[in-house]
Design a protein that fits this description.
Blueprint: H1 3-9, H2 24-64, E1 90-91, E2 100-103, E3 110-117, E4 127-128, E5 139-145, E6 150-156, E7 160-169, E8 177-186, E9 194-202, E10 208-214, E11 217-225, E12 229-234, E13 244-250, H3 258-264, E14 266-269, E15 279-282, E16 284-285, E17 295-303, E18 306-314, H4 326-347, H5 357-372, E19 375-379, E20 382-384, E21 392-393, E22 397-401, E23 412-413, H6 414-427, H7 429-440, E24 452-453, H8 457-460, E25 470-471, H9 481-494, H10 497-520, H11 567-586, H12 592-601, H13 604-611, E26 612-613, E27 618-619, E28 621-625, E29 629-632, E30 654-657, E31 662-666, H14 675-678, H15 687-696, E32 703-704, E33 707-708, H16 736-751, H17 757-782, E34 788-789, E35 796-797, H18 809-814
Parallel strand pairs: 13-16, 20-25
Antiparallel strand pairs: 1-2, 2-3, 3-4, 3-9, 5-6, 6-7, 7-8, 8-18, 9-17, 10-11, 11-12, 12-18, 13-17, 14-15, 19-22, 20-21, 23-24, 26-27, 28-31, 29-30, 32-33, 34-35
Helix pairs in contact: 6-7, 6-9, 9-11, 10-11, 11-12, 16-17
């Protein structure tokens, strides 16, 4: 018998069974009470479970933004190691440096160059280190660089030129040897400057450095790190007349502080008694001998001309036949130069198209700057979702990527990189595959990729704080599908095991990325899309920015709402769906859905229904819009209440709407209007193509003698400041990436059967000539390729050198679309 039964059958007070015990009224008074208690306990338990589940759910929402995609990475953890990829282990991967070397490892020792001009009287002396437009160098950039083996760069300072060169040599187990040479030549031999060249090595984390002194001169640095094993950086004796040597042995808290540490260790020496101006030298050991050394500098000072060399030798090379210096260095360099020149003209047949030697050298410089600016970064992005009150750290990740501009944007930009690899992939497809794989391996569990990757202390030191945090609702154009079109066709054609393996690893990540766009960026109307990230409360902006589109201040609807439809994003997804169908078909995956989506998004009738404005006779965005807006300074507040503070004087101007907005097509003609044409979606026989072609050639709209301007002169926001302080950016300037797409589309339509072939061919010929001539003219005049160009004068504008997508001029010259 159970304990419960025995308890209930026991006589009360020893009197036998009690009648009252079994009365229904008593039974009903006790049983519900027990049941209620049990129910209450169950309810509390269920509540606790729900609370725990909710807390776990909230935690998962918060952590999703920083959780890697649950799919095997494309690249193995050791794919960038010296063992797996020795050819690309060492490189000029410090993109922000005038000259710097590092490896593709998490915590690579770094080598770099600093220099200064002596006897200028400036205190402190201007010290060149990181690329900086404020240095006002006459010009600098790689003249030759093959992306792997060698490079030669000219740097024009105020009164002299530096030529930096490097050559790599394979061998051993840790990436082989390399050597660098710097030549310093005065412009005027009768007035030679005295210059100090300073080569350094610094550790980023683990490792050891042991300076080697010979008669108080730093002759080499011996060292050890996990990825490099034992190594030695040698400083062969300089033979320049009257050269003086000094050095620094010190410790730097982190890599972005190297220049500060060096400047703090600089002393004034009386080298020449006849001079009254100070002479700056490094003061030797700056830390006690028992403290760890992670920063060593070798300084050579001499009156120009002179040159110096540095030689890196891996301890794992056991059969080294000679030192890579002097004539050995020169011979190796010339062999690489000859191979490069031959390969360049084979890849980009410019000679066959009638270009002169100077024009071909310009193209070589444009290309070399792009591949010479490829960087290797390691660190974590700072990210945030709507579920995170504060930004959180992404996981630690490597990134091998090109950069748009060494002085201004020395970091990875998602939409820029697709354009970069249109050029890189035609030179070396393996580099492009490596770059694309690195980017896609930074994808989180949602299928999102941070659009701007700022990895490591040096990269973060170059970025204003307000631009560091990346938000997971924000996209960028999926431009990787542009180079992937060609790469995938080539891989499908080759059908090698290596290419099939790469495609199989690539596909799940592209699928997740594609799905993220189709869930996070869709519009309210079927098959419409909308860029997220526009700020409807941005009252100081004439037209709220659309940074996520890549076109920044290009005018969209004046008042952002969820009802917007963005034609450029729809076209990007049309491109992406076609490429996805090709990959899936080649892998025998379910490709039909991608193909149906591609047909839907390229259907001209549906495109016209959503985006063709009969009033504007153009493809347009749709949204809550009015053209009648202006910036005005707020009027001073009168009749203040007692104790109420008056508003600050000279407040920034704010936007004033002079006419109520309404849902309508945004009839502002410019690059966005061209996207169905740029991405070859408009049918070759469509009358709308005829309208677009004629609008292209119209000087009052987009046509100039220098290229297609970004915004029509007839647009009310043409060349208008977007705030009181922010000058126009995509509101009239000529951008080379978009002109490249326009030329590719013109070339396509000139070869597609239809009534407008000849018109497209004629416009193509004139536009191509205008672009190439203007970039050449600017390069010869200024020494730089620029971020964008004035639609009025053709003059270069913005950051420089800008050898990201502006280097697409090489493909334009070679007619490779």
């Amino acid at each position: 018998m159970s304990k419960e039964v025995r308890r209930r059958s026991r006589p009360r007070d020893g009197l036998g069974p009690s009648k009252s015990y079994s009365r229904p009224s008593q039974k009903s008074s006790k049983t519900p009470g027990g049941l209620l208690t049990k129910l209450a306990i169950s309810a509390v338990a269920a509540g606790v479970v729900l609370v725990i589940a909710y807390m776990r759910y909230q935690t998962s929402l918060k952590s999703a933004v920083k959780t890697p995609l649950q799919s095997p990475t494309i690249l193995a953890d050791n794919s960038s190691s010296a063992a797996e990829n020795p050819d690309r282990f060492w490189g000029t991967y410090r993109s922000h440096m005038y000259f710097g070397m590092k490896t593709r490892s998490k915590a690579s020792p770094v080598v770099g160059l600093m220099w200064l001009t002596q006897f200028t009287g400036q205190m402190p002396p201007p010290l060149r280190h990181w690329c900086d437009q404020g240095d006002r160098l006459q010009r600098y950039g790689w003249m030759l660089h093959d992306g792997v083996n060698f490079g030669s760069q000219d740097i024009h300072d105020s009164t002299y030129m530096l030529r930096t060169q490097f050559v790599k040599r394979p061998g051993g187990q840790h990436g082989g040897d390399w050597s660098a040479r710097v030549k310093a030549v005065p412009y005027n031999p009768n007035k030679p400057a005295t210059v100090s060249l300073m080569f350094y090595m610094a550790l980023d984390g683990q490792g050891q450095l042991a300076p080697q002194l010979t008669k108080k001169r730093l002759s080499s640095i011996k060292g050890y790190s996990e990825e490099l094993g034992h190594f030695e950086l040698k400083f062969p004796k300089n033979t320049a007349t009257g050269a003086r040597n000094s050095h620094l042995i010190s410790h730097s808290p982190q890599l972005d502080k190297l220049k500060d540490v060096l400047m703090a260790s600089m002393a004034v020496d009386a080298w020449d008694k006849k001079r009254t101006l100070p002479y700056f030298v490094l003061n030797g050991r700056a830390i006690p001998s028992d403290q760890p050394t992670n920063f060593v500098v070798h300084q050579v000072t001499a009156t120009l001309p002179f040159e110096m060399e540095v030689v890196f030798e891996s301890g794992s090379v056991t059969n080294r036949r000679d030192t890579l210096a002097g004539n050995v260095f020169e011979n190796a360099l010339q062999n690489h130069v000859s191979s490069f020149n031959e390969r360049f003209l084979k890849t980009f047949p410019l000679k066959e198209r009638g270009y002169s030697v100077n024009e071909i050298n310009f193209a070589k410089a444009a290309f070399s700057n792009m591949v010479g600016s490829i960087g290797y970064f390691y660190g974590s992005s700072l990210v945030q979702s709507i579920y995170n009150e504060e930004p959180v750290e992404y996981w630690q990740t490597p990134l091998y990527t090109g950069v748009p501009s060494r002085p201004f944007f020395p970091r990875g930009f998602l939409w820029d990189e697709g354009f970069h690899n249109l050029l890189i992939s035609q030179w070396d497809p393996s580099i492009s595959k490596d770059i694309i794989a690195h980017w896609l391996d930074t994808m989180n569990i949602e299928g999102w990729i941070p659009r701007e990757q700022i990895l490591g202390v040096e990269a973060r030191a170059k970025v204003p704080g307000e631009f560091v945090v990346q938000r997971n609702k924000n996209a960028n154009p999926p431009t990787f599908f542009l180079p992937l079109q060609r790469l995938i066709k080539d891989m499908i054609k080759s059908n090698t095991l290596k290419d099939r393996t790469f495609l199989s690893a690539l596909y799940p990540r592209l699928k997740a990325w594609y799905s993220w766009y189709n869930s996070s960026q869709v519009g309210k109307d079927p098959s419409s899309y909308r860029w997220r990230g526009r700020d409807a409360t941005a009252v100081k902006q004439l037209n709220p920015l659309t940074l996520t589109s890549g076109l920044d201040d290009y005018p969209r609807s004046s008042h952002p709402t969820d009802d917007e439809r963005h034609v450029d994003l729809r076209c990007w997804l049309a491109l992406a769906s076609g490429v996805m169908a090709d990959i899936a078909r080649s892998l025998a995956k379910d490709w039909e859905e991608y193909d149906r989506t591609h047909k839907l998004l390229t259907d001209n009738d549906l495109l016209d229904k959503l985006h063709w404005s009969e009033q504007g006779q153009q493809y347009s965005d749709y949204g809550f819009h009015t053209d009648r807006v202006k910036l005005e300074r707020p009027k001073p507040q009168l009749n203040l209440q007692p104790g109420q503070r008056p508003p600050p004087m000279n407040q920034d101007k704010i936007r004033v709407t002079q006419e109520e907005p309404k849902n309508q097509f945004v009839n502002i003609f410019g690059y966005v209007s061209l996207f169905p044409f740029l991405l070859k979606i408009v049918e070759p026989d469509s009358p709308k193509l005829y309208k677009i072609l004629n609008d292209l050639k119209n000087p009052s709209l987009l046509w100039t003698d220098y290229g297609l301007r970004s915004l029509s002169q007839s647009a009310k926001l043409y060349n208008r400041y977007n705030t009181e302080h922010d000058p126009p950016y995509w509101r009239g300037a000529i951008w080379i990436n978009m002109n490249y797409l326009a030329l590719g589309a013109l070339d396509f339509y000139s070869r597609s059967r239809g009534p407008y072939q000849n018109l497209a061919a004629s416009i193509y010929k004139d536009l191509r000539k205008n672009i190439v001539d203007n970039l050449m003219t600017n390069y010869e005049k200024t020494g730089y390729i620029w971020e964008n160009y004035s639609d009025k004068t053709g003059e270069g504008k913005g950051s420089h050198p800008f050898t990201g997508w502006s280097a697409l001029v090489v493909l334009i010259m070679g007619e490779r679309y």
